[in-house]
Each structure stands twice: as structure tokens, then as C-alpha cells.
Amino acid sequence: MSATARFDLKMDVEEKEIFSRAAAIMGTTTAAFIRIAAKEKAQELLDRDAQVTMTARDFSTFIRAFNGSFVPNAVLEKAIKAAQDIKKHA
Fold first, then answer.
1. Which end of the chain has fewer CB atoms < 10 Å from its terminal CB, N or C?
2. Nearest-angstrom CA–CA distance, 33 and 9
3. What is the 3-state secondary structure (H, E, C) of 15-46?
4. How far is residue 22's CA from residue 20's CA, in Å, rounded to a whole number?
């Protein structure tokens, strides 16, 4: 069984009536309706926050850099060589 947490929420009578009517349309309790609606909105905001937005110019620059030739630095070259040596002796 998963752990539960309590969350108390105060609202005015008009808000409660709106939520109660919407919950009735969905055939659920007011608490369940608020939980579902809040979770959907929170996930929408989290998903939007996780997206990277850039201009067309920035995207073009990113694609050119992404598709361009990669030149490893000295530390990476050393690590590649070490990995190849390990592979040869394995």
C-alpha cells in the first residue's frame, strides 16, 4: 500500500460549488476531482518547464554544432586510448 499525505484546502463557497458540480458531472467526489485536476495541471506545468524552447536561428546554430565534426580534447583522447588498450587485453 502506498503512503498517503493529507492536504487541507480552504476555499470560498462559490469555488466549492463549482468543484462540486464539476465532480458530479465526472461522477466522482469533490476531493477526487480536485486531486485529479490539480495533478493534471501540475504535470502540464512540469512538462512545459522541462521543454527547451529556442528561436529558429538558435535551433539552426544548435543543429550545425550537433552535426559538425567533433574533436575530443586531450583528456578524452587519453580515456579513449585507455579504453582501447583495455579492450585489446581483454
1. N
2. 14
3. HHHHHHHHHHHHCCCHHHHHHHHHHHHHHHHH
4. 5
Q: What's the pTM? A: 0.58
Q: Is the pLDDT of residue 90 over 80?
A: no
For residue 43, give the amino acid letter: Q
The pLDDT value recorded for residue 89 is 84
| Cell numbers found for residue 34 | 480536485
At residue 10, φ and ψ (nearest 5 deg) are -100, 140
Q: Which contacts qualify for 54-61: CB closer than 8 Å, 24 or more apart?
A: none
Residue 12 in grid coordinates? 470560498
